[in-house]
Amino acid sequence: MSKVIIRDAGVEFDAEDNESVLEAAIRHGFDYPRGCQNGVCGDCKSVLVSGRINQAPVSKMVLSDQERKEGLFLACKSKVQTDCVVVPCLRENLSEQSNINGRISSIDRVGRDVAIVRVKTDQLFSDYHPGQYANVNFGNLPAREYSFANCRGDHHLEFHIRKVAGGRVSTHVHDRASIGDPVSITGPFGFAYLRPKTRGLLVLIASGTGLAPIKSILHAAVQAKYADTVHVYQSAQCEEGHYLVEEIRQLCGQLRDANHFRTSGEAETGATAREQLLALLDANYTVLANATAFLCGSPAIVEACRRALVSKSLPQDRCYADAFVMRTPTTEQVSPPMLSG
C-alpha cells in the first residue's frame, strides 16, 4: 500500500497495490478531476511531483510524448508504485461531496432500452453544474455513476439508465424497481460541465444515454438565455434507439439560435451511426477556434468526435468529454511505461 498526496489541496489517501491514482481517490470519496475515466478525455491529467507510477498507453492526442517527458500522466491510467505527490492540472472544486437521500417518484421506459428515473430528494439538491454526475445507490445495490439530466433547482433529480445485459443495477431498475423505493445519492462529480462564462458556438454531442448530461446543459442554456449558436447532435445505433427527441427539439426552440441534428446507422448503405455523425460534423464545420464542445456517450464515438473537432481547430481545453464506460473486470496492462518524479 502506498500514500498519495494531493499537493496544495491538503488531502492524502492510501492506494492499494496496483490501484490507479483515480481509483484510490474515488474510493476515499475525493473528487479528483475526471471525466471519462478511460483515458479519452484528459480531465484527470496531472503532474507527478515525486514518486513512481506505471502509466498505461493512451492516445497521444490526450497525452503527448512531450507531456510525458515533463512528468504529466493520466490519473485514471496510472497505477501507484510508491508514495506519490501529485498535482491535478484541473483544480476546480477539489472537495468532498454531499450525500442526500430520496425515493423514486417515477420511472418512464423510453426508446428501446432506456428508463428515465426521477428521484424526489428529502431536501433540495442543486449544488451541481449542468453536465456533472453522481454516484447513485438503489437500495442496497452497488453505486453506479449517472449524469444529472434535469435543470438545477428541480425538486426531482432525473437519471437516464440503459439496460445492460447482465447488469445487476440496470436490470433491477428496469425489471424490479418501484415508485417509493429508497435511493441515496453522492455527488456531484465531473469536470465536463457548462461554465457560466461560456460564450460562442456550443456543440453538444450525445450518443445513447449520453443525452442525459446534454439535456441538463440545454436546460441551463435556456435558463441563461444563451445568446450564441447551439448545435445539438443525437446519435443512436438505430432509429429505435432515439428517445426524448421532441423534448430536445422544444428546448432548442427556446434558444435564440439552435439546431438539432439526429443521426443513426443506415441499414441500406451499411453506414454506422458513428460514420453518419462524423460525416455531418465534417460537413457542418470548417474552423471551430471559438467554439466549446461537450461530447457524451460511448467511448468510441466520444474519441472519434474529439479527434474530428480538434482537427477543425477546436481548442482541446474547450473540448469536454464524458465517455460512458461499462464496468468490466480489470485487466492488467503488459509492461506499461514507468514514470518517476
What is this structure's SSE topology?
Blueprint: E1 2-6, E2 11-15, H1 21-27, E3 45-50, E4 52-55, H2 65-69, E5 72-74, E6 78-80, E7 84-88, E8 98-110, E9 114-121, E10 133-138, E11 144-147, E12 156-162, H3 168-175, E13 182-189, E14 202-207, H4 211-223, E15 230-236, H5 245-253, E16 258-264, H6 273-284, E17 292-297, H7 299-310, E18 319-323, E19 338-340
Parallel strand pairs: 1-7, 14-15, 14-17, 15-16, 17-18
Antiparallel strand pairs: 1-2, 3-5, 3-7, 4-6, 4-19, 8-9, 8-13, 9-12, 10-11, 10-13
Helix pairs in contact: 6-7
Structure description:
The structure is a single chain. 19% of the residues lie in helices and 33% in strands. It is α/β, with parallel strands linked by helices and 341 residues long. It has three domains: 2-88, Beta-grasp domain (Ubiquitin-like (UB roll)), CATH 3.10.20; 98-189, Translation factors (Elongation Factor Tu (Ef-tu), domain 3), CATH 2.40.30; 201-323, Rossmann fold, CATH 3.40.50. A six-stranded antiparallel β-sheet has the order 11-10-13-8-9-12. Helix 6 runs parallel beside helix 7. The longest helix has 13 residues, at 211-223. It starts with a strand and ends with a strand. Mean pLDDT is 88; it is low at 328-340.
